[in-house]
Automatic annotation (TrEMBL):
GO cellular component annotations of the record: plasma membrane
SUPFAM superfamilies: MetI-like
InterPro entries: MetI-like (IPR000515), MetI-like_sf (IPR035906)
Protein name: Iron ABC transporter permease
Gene Ontology process terms (BP): transmembrane transport
Record's bilayer topology term: Multi-pass membrane protein
Transmembrane residue ranges: 7-27, 59-78, 85-104, 134-155, 175-195, 240-259, 280-307, 327-347, 359-386, 392-417, 451-468, 503-527
Organism of origin: Gluconacetobacter aggeris
Domain ABC transmembrane type-1: 53-251, 325-518
Keywords: Cell inner membrane, Cell membrane, Membrane, Transmembrane, Transmembrane helix, Transport
Compartments where located: Cell inner membrane
Length: 551
């Protein structure tokens, strides 16, 4: 227990946050008495919606296929080519990742609502299958480019040199490279299928207005419209969970095949300058991503906010809007801190000297990774059932919303911090412990200066995504305390586009200001500028060593 006790403790916390709520909700079709209130366990409708299932599978598959070519191209440009716009392309992909899907949809809705486009072909395309698939594809470019970069890195310099020697024809070398990238393409496809099937923002805005039912929104309707039907929501949830788990298994198999095809030890592939044709293609991709995912939606929001006061909206944000921003700031700030701390503690358990602690930490890592297969709507429904009883009566309180925020974004924090913790040499802590340095002192003098900037970046990423979080907020927010996402969706449903645009733009500015201040200022205030705090080579004569401090 001295070695793995903390990991077991955190394992119990994660079991309460993940295993107990999800098991109780997903087993509801077999155990209807587990419903939160009497009578809510009996299904009032058919078990599954064939239309929603067909739409979800079809649209997710189409988006998964469409995202492969631009994803592979973006990964190739960032990993294997040197050109001036690489930083801009990377920033555009990060912007798409952080842009809430419902705000992306709202921006394009404002564009097609213009007088010269209203009622034309553009409106029919957006409010149809083509528009939903296009927005899902744009939203999935960030994940696909990350997977593609890993695939291009796996095709190392040795493979390139061997293909040039043994395959003289250029088209055959290109065909060989594409065959080596097939496992990566499969991973991109599976990731996009899962992400598209779980995207609540596009389903709740564009899908609902286009009258195209999707499974993720059908689950929400079963939980929010009278009569409530938790059993039917649980049956629909099994579809998304099994689809996501199957995709995770397929991705693991494809990753293994990719590693086997690439060989063992690989040299890093060379970065060559772009030719004229490749440069034109690179800039075309970058400009297209910027326009489709950020520039056009944000400009549409700005134009709507400055020039439209329809439905009696004033140009100023009302008190409810400011209250929603304040609540989202508090909820997102606290939840991001908890998520990063739990991620650091779980990953830190992997660095323990005892094998038991590492095994438990690895099990917790796999558990939180499996939680990525659970959409926010399903997790919110599970929390309604699990924390609405006599023992853990948290439903309707801010504590439950913060707990759900933390649980849903803990896997993201772990994945972001996995590489920095893996690069920490275990000998740093062991040497300090041999010399009698306490755990608190080791954290302060060794681990914190090395990891604090990465911890701050992880906090900023989680904070931004939680600030505009929608599905969990819709299901779990306390009465009279609607967060920002709920307020924005309410304005979108009532067609108050001007008020929604103004509130969204102000909230974006506040969110970016808080995040930038935390990322830039906090590391300097806590760990200093670097060498002075760490006692680097320049201060070797004045900085005391660990042995001197121990003495």
């Amino acid at each position: 227990m001295g070695i793995c006790g903390p990991s077991v403790l955190f394992g119990a916390v994660i079991a309460v946050c993940f295993l107990y709520p999800l098991t109780r909700f997903l087993m509801l079709p077999l155990m209807p008495d587990w419903a939160p209130l009497p009578g809510l366990g009996a299904a009032s409708g058919p078990g599954l919606s064939s239309g929603a299932l067909w739409n979800t599978v079809r649209l997710s598959t189409e988006a998964g296929l469409l995202v492969i070519p631009p994803g592979l191209l973006a990964g190739f440009l960032l990993e294997r080519r040197r050109w001036r716009g690489a930083g801009l392309l990377s920033a555009a992909l990060w912007g798409i990742f952080l842009m809430p899907s419902y705000l992306l949809t709202m921006g394009w809705q404002i564009v097609v609502a213009a007088p010269f486009l209203a009622g034309g072909a553009a409106g029919h395309l957006l409010y149809g299958e083509a528009g939903i698939v296009a927005l899902l594809t744009v939203k999935g470019l960030a994940f696909s480019s990350v997977a593609a970069r890993a695939g291009w890195h796996a095709v190392g310099a040795d493979m390139d040199a061997a293909s040039r020697v043994h395959v003289p024809a250029a088209w055959r070398r290109a065909w060989l490279t594409l065959r080596l990238l097939l496992p990566v393409s499969g991973s991109i496809f599976t990731i996009q299928v899962v992400a598209a099937s779980q995207d609540f923002g596009i389903a709740a805005t564009l899908g609902a207005q286009a009258r195209m039912p999707l499974v993720i929104y059908a689950i929400y309707q079963d939980l929010s419209t009278v009569p409530l039907d938790f059993t039917r929501a649980a049956r629909l949830s099994w579809v998304l969970v099994l689809l996501a788990l199957a995709a995770l298994v397929v991705q693991a198999v494809l990753a293994r095949r990719s590693a086997m095809a690439g060989g063992g030890h690989r040299h890093r592939p060379g970065v060559a300058p772009c030719g004229r044709g490749m440069t034109v293609l690179a800039w075309s991709l970058t400009v297209g991503i910027l326009l489709a995912g950020e520039v056009v939606p944000l400009l549409a929001l700005a134009a709507q906010a400055m020039g439209d006061t329809g439905s009696g909206d004033a140009l100023l944000i009302d008190g409810e809007g400011w209250r929603g921003i304040g609540l989202s700031l508090r909820y997102a700030f606290v939840s991001a801190v908890f998520a990063v701390l739990l991620a650091a503690l779980i990953l830190g358990g992997r660095m323990r000297a005892g094998g038991s602690g590492r095994v438990v930490a690895r099990m917790l890592l796999w558990l939180t990774s499996a939680n990525m297969a659970v959409p926010g709507v399903i997790l919110g429904a599970a929390y309604v059932i699990a924390f609405n009883g006599r023992v853990l009566s948290l439903y309707g309180t801010p504590a439950l919303l913060i707990l759900a925020y933390t649980a849903s974004h803990l896997p993201i924090a772990i994945r972001f911090l996995d590489a920095p913790f893996a690069h920490l040499h275990r000998g740093l802590g062991e040497a300090a412990r041999v010399h009698g340095v306490s755990l608190a002192r080791r954290v302060e003098r060794i681990y914190l200066p090395l990891l604090f900037r990465r911890l701050t970046w992880a906090w900023g990423m989680v904070f931004v995504t939680l600030f505009f979080e929608l599905p969990l907020s819709e299901i779990l927010y306390p009465a009279g305390s609607a967060p920002l996402g709920v307020k924005l969706l309410s304005l979108d449903d009532t067609l108050h586009y001007g008020a929604e645009a103004r509130l969204a733009l102000v909230a974006m500015g506040i969110c970016l200001a808080v995040t930038a201040a935390a990322i830039i200022l906090v590391p300097r205030l806590v760990v200093g500028s670097g060498p002075e705090r760490m006692g680097g080579a320049g201060n070797a004569r004045t900085a005391p060593s660990l042995e001197q401090e121990n003495a």
